[in-house]
Specification:
Layout lengths: L10 H23 L3 H10 L18 H12 L4 H26 L3 E2 L2 E2 L1 H5 L1 H20 L4 H25 L12 H26 L4 H28 L2 H4 L5 H4 L5 H8 L5 H10 L3 H7 L1
Antiparallel strand pairs: 1-2
The structure holds geranylgeranyl diphosphate.
Keywords: Magnesium, Metal-binding, Transferase
Protein name: Polyprenyl synthetase family protein
InterPro entries: Isoprenoid_synthase_dom_sf, Polyprenyl_synt, Polyprenyl_synt_CS
């Protein structure tokens, strides 16, 4: 079966994301404007609002999925978009913080089609900018009506993010086969925490600030968590079979780096006769083309 090599979101998804980004932008700018000017510049750079060192770079912020979920969560509760804005600002700041620190941990040179913050400003400043974004997120949410409960919800997601990131880092140290191998259910738990927790938090915080009933807040949290697992699996699929001109990922880069991605773990979990050969190729780090054909 031919797998899709790109994921095309319907036009109305782009329209909804753009509408939510516009609703949140003034509050996000106001929050970033309260930062130390140099630290705020790093935040603005990572959000795709400015260039650095005079070098022209393509303006590219994030998609704004988390801020959109917060706004949509508030609207789902019957409140106006503005009710969800403090949640949207907080989750977008936390997301940006986690990307800054993740890029340092992974040594990634590029993000959002430009050099990562640590590449552009240095590791120490990038750590500081991440810390400042984290602090600003908590401060913003605490100041909102219903702040203390909202901060508790965010704290649970933050602990999940750390848990998921730690699991992901440890996956790299584990073998491909045998009792210590990473099972697909462990992968799902990791993805739920690392990516799903903040998506669920975004939607549920928006709903909470919009006055939704606890059952609706919980349901949105669960939906966001499932979305995170799906998001991570699609990302893995595109990392193996995606069109590099669209994804910006190098061909078979994940396989070359021997990342524990879902398609590979599922193939090894399947007990298919080919999985022994696949594990041997991955261990040797050779012939990624043959490995890809075995998945
Ligand atoms: C919370 C205290 C604390 C620490 C964080 C660094 C870390 C610990 C966690 C890393 C979490 C991480 C990087 C998860 C991956 C999330 C992900 C799917 C990023 C890509 O999201 P998109 O596609 O990005 O929404 P854009 O660029 O569109 O915003």
């Amino acid at each position: 079966t031919a797998l899709p090599t790109t994921v095309q979101a319907p036009a109305d998804v782009h329209r909804v994301l753009a509408r939510c980004r516009e609703a949140v932008r003034p509050a996000l700018e106001e929050a970033v404007g309260r930062m130390h000017p140099w630290v705020g510049e790093m935040a603005a750079y990572s959000l795709g609002w400015c260039e650095v060192g005079g070098a022209p770079v393509a303006a590219s912020g994030g998609k704004g999925v988390r801020q959109a979920l917060a706004v949509l969560g508030a609207e789902a509760a019957g409140a106006p978009a503005e009710a969800g804005v403090p949640a949207a600002v907080a989750v977008e700041l936390v997301h940006t913080f986690s990307l800054l620190h993740d890029d340092i941990m992974d040594g990634d040179p590029a993000r959002r089609r430009r050099p990562t913050v640590w590449k552009a400003y240095g590791t120490g400043p990038a750590v500081l900018a991440g810390d400042a974004l984290f602090a600003l997120a908590v401060e913003t949410l605490a100041a909102a009506p219903g702040g203390p409960q909202a901060v508790r919800v965010l704290s649970v997601a933050l602990s999940d993010l750390v848990h998921g990131q730690a699991d992901d880092l440890l996956f790299a140290t584990r073998p491909w086969t045998g009792p210590q191998r990473v099972r697909t259910d462990e992968y799902r738990a990791m993805a739920e925490r690392k990516t799903g927790a903040l998506l669920g938090c975004a939607a549920s915080l928006g709903a909470l600030l919009g006055g939704a009933a606890p059952a609706a807040v919980d349901a949105l949290d669960r939906a966001g968590r499932h979305l995170g697992i799906a998001f991570q699996i699609v990302d893995d699929v595109l990392g193996i079979w995606g069109d590099p001109s669209v994804t910006g990922k190098p061909v078979h880069g994940d396989l070359r780096e021997r990342k524990k991605t879902f398609p590979v773990l599922a193939a090894l979990d399947s007990d298919h006769p080919r999985s022994g050969r696949l594990a041997a190729l991955l261990d040797a780090g050779e012939d990624v083309e043959e490995a890809a054909a075995l998945i």
